[in-house]
Amino acid sequence: MSVAIGTAEKIAGMNRRNLLVTALAAVAALSSTLALAQSRPVRLIVPYAAGGPIDVTARVLAERVKDSLGTVIIENRPGGGGNIGADAVAKAAPDGLTIGISAVATHAINPWLFSKMPYDAAKDFAPITQMVRVPNVLVMNAETAARLKVNSVADLIAYGKANPGKLNYGSGGNGSAGHLAGEMFKRDAGIFAVHIPYNGGSPAQLALLSGQVDFNFDNLATAAPNIRSGKLKALAVTTLKRSPSLPEVPPVADTLRGFAIDTWWGLVAPANTPKDVISKLNQAFVAALQSPEAKTRFAGLLAEPVSSSPDEFGNFMRAELAKYEKVVKASGAKVD
191 near 157, Cβ under 8 Å? Predict the structure, then answer.
């Protein structure tokens, strides 16, 4: 009997040692991953060309996280409406050494706009934090607004209902943020306006300035100079609340409850990146987003820094993906 008990105790001891060895191995592997992320540069993939607002904000934050993460190298991978760069992130090793920008286009619009996607926006990424929100703004040519006696969103809706088929609006192309905002506005307001797509945001704004179209939904940073000069009349911003960059202009949501369509971007890692690594990245970039230097630089771009937890950003991206499924399908927009 004592032999059996002794044998059982030896087996139990061996099991405990095996569990301890396994646990220590797991901790060592995670520590190795974290150490690797600190000793080697982190690659931050921007799926757009250098020099734009997304690239600029990425570089600002990369500079601010040097003390906690070490060197962060920006790699621009433009093309495919952002899909090429996003796919590079999705297919990278989940070790914390490759992260990337997720944007409203790459993670909310493109999955419904392209018939074939190289990645799954809902499954192939681990959220880190949201970075930025940039309001869009509903603008009219100032002379057109005066002629039609439109001084508010309610006035524009009233004119559209009283004059069916007479309004039109421009955008940077089928499936662009301006196009989808216009379709949402028509749906929620119960009016009809002809969509006139242009080859980019600049031609669309020139068409508005020359009076070829009646209204546009434009990026606030792009529209602001012409709003300040008086050439464009800002009727509303598309954020749920007023923008600090244009505090005198009300949101569309004051007239059409719940209306919100913003330009946003944030940070993601490949799916299956360890949670401790994600937490470390989140802490570093959230601190950078909240720094006075980052806020000052972002304000110059009329961009609002927005930090969040990984779970919060993940929930936000899922909600945006679901929202744009309805909008894109209703618009009928396709790019291939």
Answer: yes
Sign of CA dihedral 109, 240, 194, 205: negative
- Distance between CA 212 and CA 153 in Å, rounded? 20
Determine contact, residues 285/99, Cβ cutoff 8 Å: no
- Reply yes or no on whether the pLDDT at 154 is more than 80: yes
Token reading at 220: 């606030």
Looking at every residue in the chain, the average pLDDT score rounds to 89
- DSSP-H helix ranges across the chain: 2-39, 53-64, 66-69, 83-90, 104, 110-113, 142-148, 153-162, 177-189, 201-209, 220-229, 275-289, 292-300, 310-331
pLDDT for residue 126: 98
Distance CA(141)–CA(209), nearest Å, equals 6
pTM score of the predicted model = 0.81
Give residues with Cβ within 8 angstroms of 280, minimum separation 6: 34, 37, 68, 69, 96
Question: Is beta strand 194-197 parallel, antiparallel or unpaired with respect to 168-171?
Answer: parallel
Pairing of strands 98-103, 72-76: unpaired
Look at the block and give the residue holding tokens 């080697």: 40
**How far is Cα 197 from Cα 57, in angstroms, rounded to an integer?**
28
Q: For a pLDDT cut of 70, what percent of the chain falls above it? A: 88
Q: Which string of b and e fits 24-36 if b means at least 16 CB within 10 Å? A: eeeeeeeeebbee
DSSP 252: G
Pairing type for strands 136-141 and 232-237 reads: antiparallel
CA distances from 291 to 22, 53, 194 (A): 41, 18, 44
